[in-house]
User: Fold this.
Amino acid sequence: MNNVRDHDADAALDDYDEHILRRMAQMYAEADPVPPDLVARSQFAITLDALHAEVAELQRWGTESMAARAEAPTGVETITFSSSTLTTMVTVTPAGPGTVRIDGWAAPGAGLPVELRLERGSEHTVADEDGRFVFEDVSIGLAQFVLRPVGGAPVITPSIQL
Amino acid sequence: MIDATPVPETLAAKAGTLFDQFREGDKAKMADLVALLTPILWHTARAQRLDAHSAEDVVQSAWLALIRNAGSITSPIAVLHWMIVTVRREAWRTASRQSRLGAMEADEFEARPSNEESPDELVLRSADASALWRHVAQLPARCQQLLRVIAFADRPDYSAVADALGMPVGSIGPTRGRCLAKLRALLSTDPAWGIE
Assistant:
């Protein structure tokens, strides 16, 4: 079928193997580079002091292809975060130069305190009796939500790029 | 004091040192650890054929999980292993959730990752890299996953990384293993692959 000799597999790794693997690393780094802001997003997310919070999972539904998200925020993006206790949906709409408006809805969310962590500090609001909340004139950049259900463990989201 | 044999500064060892320093109270070391391990974790997630956004979220969630579980990791040197396992499991979970969704939603998700990595659309800088890409693509999927992740580690870490990927003992390191032997054989017959 092919000309691989079985005993090759049992030979000790040598420098040529390492050469191949180094070239593979270069190839993948070139073909599929780490997104430029991934390190910064992760570093931002872990500075949050809510170590025992539950991390919600994300689902994204953009109006454009998901691949377009990294570009200028021209479109409306809807993101759903789900945890075992809460489902939160936020819609991010471009508002002005460098700013967005965030409309959110959480269930169960009546009276839910919502924190929007930004690179320069946090904004706070409380969801209305239907679980709706709004943040207006939010500067674009990294953002992370912290939801603190009364009597329950806080829920944090991975950081997103607004 | 006589010099001890230096411990090789492998990826796992460097990560272990930073994690140890973080746990000793030097909180800034966590940022260094994130910078150090993000490439291998990114390729771990992407090797599971996750789309780019999901891969980013999976990597980020793994860091949050590490912070929350920092106390339960018994040996700092195991932090690389722990992170790869966490990313791999979460990537697998996310991918299977997406393919369930995909079945309902006109397989929007499933179509994407495979398109993204079509070698025809990729412009790799050298003929050498293109040859390598072609041959890697002929390997079984598990071999591609293994070698892609291993490539971002150092030789003494290979077996531990393979283990974290759920690959059987001996799949790579200290011996070559079948995947790498197969790739070597393919490359040896290709004049486009140059040996320096």
Q: What stands out?
A: The mean pLDDT of chain B is 85. The CA atoms of residues 188 and 195 of chain B lie 9 Å apart. Chain B touches chain A through 59 residues (CB under 8 Å). The longest helix of chain B spans residues 79-104.
